[in-house]
Specification:
Layout lengths: L49 E12 L2 E12 L3 E5 L6 H8 L9 E9 L2 E2 L7 H7 E4 L10 H12 L4 H14 L3 H4 L12 H13 L5 E5 L7 H14 L4 E5 L3 H7 L2 E6 L2 E7 H6 L4 H7 L5
Parallel strand pairs: 3-8, 3-9, 6-7, 7-8
Antiparallel strand pairs: 1-2, 1-4, 4-5, 9-10
Helix pairs in contact: 3-4, 3-6, 4-6, 6-7
The structure holds adenosine-5'-triphosphate (ATP).
The site of adenosine-5'-triphosphate (ATP) has 13 residues, from strand 2 and helix 1.
Organism: Rubripirellula lacrimiformis
Keywords: ATP-binding, Nucleotide-binding, Phosphate transport, Transport
GO molecular function: ATP binding; ATP hydrolysis activity; phosphate transmembrane transporter activity
Length: about 300
């Protein structure tokens, strides 16, 4: 396979949708001086390169406020875990990052939510283009009732002008990246719904990366999977982390500590603590964080 281009769908023979440089996205300057942690004033904080910048975000369903004045910078090419008890706003935040909440009539939000120059919350933002950059994988695998091949080819057919050979190459590349190619290569034109749950989830990841996102949002991607499939997804996240920015919502503390670089702990719609995962699980600053990661509540 040749080197990944920085722009998906360009009409060259190299059609892999994303590459390590991610150079086509507007960028906040590396070494953004904003701290990536909200805790421990005085403690040195490593300056990660920010991909998603969130400032003073308030999110509502009607009158109910689900997220309160949230400020957090999501670092590029890292895995960030969102943890916290049920109802604390983790999914709401994911759903605002790729504007899924547009489909909820009562949902509204204020504050800053940016990916580089792109103002995610702005009314004029092209949501279809945004979702190419910010893919999402849900709790329950949701392949389309189509063939395995057509699931992965769906987005590229919509957004890119590719020859049959280029599309074949892209489908293969995406399935390889999602670590499911070997299992499906001989049944590409069979129904996706005939795959196991773990295979379906990896297919959904292949479908998400086929259109060249910068970031993959994963909302409890393993909660419907058996332990072996869960391990396969975790291994996959480890492999993808160099090329993608991954945000995972999880209730599984082992998973957060195994898979993520950074962890954000939320409680009742507020960010309590955001730090390196190792620190959150060994020496958190807040008692509430410690109680949660030790399983004392939630
Ligand atoms: N469509 C909606 N309409 C009204 N309220 C909603 C809607 N979706 C979520 N909420 C409320 O917003 C709050 C945050 O919900 P959210 O789903 O973001 O929490 P969560 O931390 O992801 O929870 P869980 O871990 O159980 O998935 C909850 O009180 C929830 O009931």
């Amino acid at each position: 396979m040749s080197a990944d281009p920085s722009s998906p769908g360009q009409s060259s023979s190299t059609i892999h949708p994303t590459g390590p440089s991610n150079s086509d996205s507007p960028q906040i300057q590396p070494n953004d001086p904003k701290p990536t942690s909200q805790v421990s004033p005085g403690r040195p904080v490593r300056a990660d390169e920010t991909l998603i910048e969130i400032g003073g975000l308030n999110a509502f369903y009607g009158d109910f406020q689900a997220i309160h004045s949230l400020s957090i910078n999501i670092p590029r090419n890292k895995v960030t875990a969102f943890i916290g008890p049920s109802g604390c706003g983790k999914s709401t935040l994911l759903r605002w990052i790729n504007r899924m909440n547009d489909t909820v009539p009562s949902a509204h939000a204020s504050g800053t939510l940016r990916m580089g120059e792109l103002d995610i919350l702005h009314k004029s933002t092209d949501v279809v283009a945004l979702r190419r950059k910010i893919g999402i994988v849900f709790q329950k695998p949701n392949p389309f009732p189509k063939s395995i091949y057509d699931n992965v080819a769906f987005g590229p057919r919509l957004h890119m002008k590719l020859s049959k050979a280029e599309l074949d190459e892209l489908v293969q590349w995406s399935l390889e990246k999602a670590a499911v190619w070997e299992e499906v290569k001989d049944r590409l034109h069979k129904p996706a719904l005939g795959l196991s749950g773990g295979q379906q989830q990896r297919l959904c990841i292949a479908r998400a990366i086929a259109v060249g996102p910068k970031i993959l949002l994963m909302d409890e991607p393993c909660s419907a999977l058996d332990p072996a499939s869960t391990l396969a997804i975790e291994d996959l996240m480890n492999e993808l982390r160099d090329q993608y920015t991954i945000v995972i919502v999880t209730h599984n503390m082992q998973q957060a500590s195994r898979c993520s670089d950074k962890t954000a702990f939320f409680f009742e719609g507020r960010l309590i603590e955001f730090d390196d995962t190792e620190r959150i699980f060994t020496l958190p600053t807040h008692r509430q964080t410690e109680d949660y990661v030790r399983g004392r509540f939630g």
